[in-house]
Design a protein that fits this description.
The chain is of the alpha+beta class. It is built from 11 helices and 17 strands. The strands form 4 sheets. Strands 5-6-7-9-8 form a 5-stranded mixed β-barrel. Strand 6 and strand 7 form a beta hairpin.
């Protein structure tokens, strides 16, 4: 039973044994008094548990829970017993009674549960920013509860992609962003809006990323709507953008499907900042750039028919490009129409 319990709960057999020993000690003290000196031994070979109550040999007993008279000790335990000896009396645990047994049961359950939660915490504490998958168990006020194997995780409302709907039992992926202890056990918080969630999906889908041939330089997202990801390759023979897109777009489409239709632009990273920013503004085509290195700002001039593409709906394209590159971008059309966007600001359009 001990071996089976330790296997089912994923904890060591020693932990289960210690829980049982502690429970027997507690049950014995319920019967013989809180100050009783109880010791429990476990024989690994036979599987036998033995409980002993130790008493000090005295001339006159004042506390029967911890003392035994020398006359009784010599008569029932050891004819050669002497004063101040510590004598162990073997206990019959069956005699502890129903209430003591029930208390022992609760102690075993609680200690095994605590050990199991500790094991789960140790398993997941180093898993932050890694991908996990599971199925939807239920929805509550805090968000969506997922079963991720040996435990559950919470997907809070603010970590869900807007307008994303889930059904009970549906399997989804998410990023572990926090693992913390609580009175109810380890609390694992996951996210589907974090930039690293998109990065983790690409690492899973593109072998060249997982083996280090291709590196993800930067990620910018407007969750549920659009994202940009900048990639570079260590090998001249490997096209980073093509590898991420996959044959007939299969790789990126798998990711888009997981993100429920979120459009993903894959950008080629280059050390040449002006070219990198121009790439980030795709699909718009840039005619001219003016760079201010000190202010980390760049003015991009595009043809009039490219301005709406460069800016994007609600400024989305230029805003994501600014977040991706870390540069302030001012997009100007041939006739003077412009938009000025900083990496962490909302888009401001002016005419």
């Amino acid at each position: 039973l001990i071996e089976q319990m330790s296997k089912d709960k994923g904890i060591g057999a020693h932990t289960v044994v210690e829980a049982i020993k502690s429970a027997i000690v507690s049950a014995a003290k319920k019967k013989f008094g809180a100050d009783a000196d109880i010791e429990v031994n476990y024989d690994e070979e036979t599987g036998e548990l033995e409980a002993f109550q130790f008493k000090t040999v005295v001339e006159r007993v004042k506390n029967s829970g911890i003392e035994i008279s020398i006359a009784e000790a010599r008569e029932t335990l050891d004819p050669e017993a002497r004063l101040h000896d510590s004598m162990g009396v073997k206990l019959d645990v069956v005699e502890f009674g129903r209430i003591a047994a029930q208390n022992a049961k609760q102690i075993i359950i609680q200690k095994v549960k605590d050990a199991e939660q500790g094991t789960v915490f140790e398993e997941f504490k180093d898993a932050k920013m890694s991908l996990t998958n599971g199925f939807i168990v239920r929805k509550d006020a805090e968000g969506i509860v997922m079963n991720i194997g040996r435990t559950e995780a919470i997907l809070p409302l603010n970590e869900q992609i807007p307008q994303e709907l889930f059904k009970r039992g549906e399997r989804i992926k998410a990023l572990i962003v926090d693992v913390r202890k609580s009175t109810k056990g380890p609390q694992i918080v996951v996210s589907r809006v974090h930039n690293s969630f998109l990065k983790a999906l690409f690492e899973m889908e593109v072998p060249e990323i997982s083996d280090g041939t291709i590196s993800i330089v930067s990620v910018a997202r407007d969750p549920g709507r659009r994202a940009k990801i900048a990639v570079t390759s260590k090998s001249k023979d490997v096209d980073p953008v093509g590898a991420c897109v996959g044959m007939r777009g299969t790789r990126v489409q798998n990711i888009v499907q997981e993100l429920r239709g979120e459009r993903v632009d894959i950008i080629a990273y280059t050390e040449h900042k002006a070219q990198y920013i121009c790439n980030a503004l795709a699909p718009a085509k840039v005619q001219k750039v003016l760079v201010d290195d000190n202010a980390k700002a760049i003015e991009v001039i595009v043809a009039a028919d490219q301005l709406s593409l460069a800016i994007g709906k609600g400024g989305q394209n230029v805003r994501l490009a600014a977040k991706l590159t870390g540069w302030k971008i001012d997009v100007t059309g041939e006739k003077g129409t412009s938009t000025n966007t900083e990496p962490n600001d909302q888009t401001e359009q002016k005419r």
